[in-house]
Amino acid sequence: MNYKFETKAIHKGQEPDKETGAIIPPIHLSSTFIQDGVGNHRGFEYSRTNNPTRSRLEEQIASLEGAKHGIAFSSGSAATSTVQLMLKSNDHIICGDDVYGGTYRFFDKVMTRFGLNYDFVDLTNAENLRIKITEKTKLLWLESPTNPLLKISDLRSLSEIASDNNIMTIVDNTFASPFLQNPLELGADLVVHSSTKYLGGHSDLVGGIVLTNNDEYAEKLRFLQNATGAIPSPFDCWLLSRGVKTLALRMRQHSENASRIAQYLSEQDPVKRVYYPFLDTHPNVDIAKGQMKMGGGMVSFDLESKHHAFEFLKNVKIFSLAESLGGVESLAEYPPEMTHGSIEPEIRKKIGINDGLVRLSVGIENIDDLLDDISHAMR
Ligand code: P1T
Questions:
Q1: What is the CATH number of domain 247-378?
Q2: 3 state SS of 212
Q3: Is 264 a catalytic residue?
Q4: Is the shortest distance between the CB of 76 and ligand 1 below 6 Å?
Q5: What does CATH list as the number for 5-244?
Q6: Global pTM value
Q7: β-strand partners of 71
Q8: Which one of 59, 115, 179, 353 has the largest count of C-beta atoms within 10 Å of its C-beta?
């Protein structure tokens, strides 16, 4: 049956237990599985290779991204790093200039030591991609919306340019979640998520997942994961499956709250600029509305200076000062010294991560309470 998103989120891969009728499938904590004869097993051999609770989670999330394959990892960073292992030395990668600081750190500080070459470019203009392509370019990596500046790129155009040049396109879809945007449908080859965020939704686990329709890429990634071992525990898979069931409800409320907050912030004098994909003043609002259902739960804004940003962060009460995002509770952070602290100050400046930048992960609390909290801190 071709079920709709909300139905798939609850039922795909989550069928009741055949043996006992338990409505919630059990957590398979077993590290190994008996074989009826050498090489004659029932689909599972050893839990690094695969595990029933993980398989169920992979089927559930794959259905939401419209993917044939899902490969769950121990973190978003493990998913990111394993995808890089599909490459070899001297390969060239084009990456969006605004990405999670840990992604930049892994590419720029780790993979370059193994002979991979990265160019970080502003992909809100597709021409910037064309200019950088060489015969060594193998991979295009981007976020949209980006972390932390909520930049929007035209996923269909970029995927098309990449595909014409035999370049694999990977979209880190963490900020949108599969409810708001499905990059595979827009031409991407792989989608990566930090499932720590909206997929999990409750700030109680760390995880990652890669989704694809390409059999060969999926097989390569499973091989690499089995070889390197960056797997999630069965308990975390189960917890994540539980969170995913309410993704649609949560994303609607995150988006509704965040768009009210973005609008409010844009009317406040001390706020120099607001970054939110569905705000009329966003430079790519039309592209955002063409490829996303709603604006999502992330809002960033510039205050006058670091001092103003710190004062704001000290005075909010419902918003907790913390890294991460995508949980039901609202968080606030200072990207220049927290999530993006590993990016050199001059590069941060060039990208547009200003000293007065504050990033909000807007939760699903009552909007009036959130607006009161912000208004009080702003004063
Ligand atoms: O934290 P981890 O599950 O390893 O995921 C890394 C990651 C990958 N991609 C994006 C877009 C991310 O935002 C992250 C993690 N980000 C934060 C912890 C943060 O506060 O931005």
A1: 3.90.1150.10
A2: strand
A3: no
A4: yes
A5: 3.40.640.10
A6: 0.98
A7: 210
A8: 179
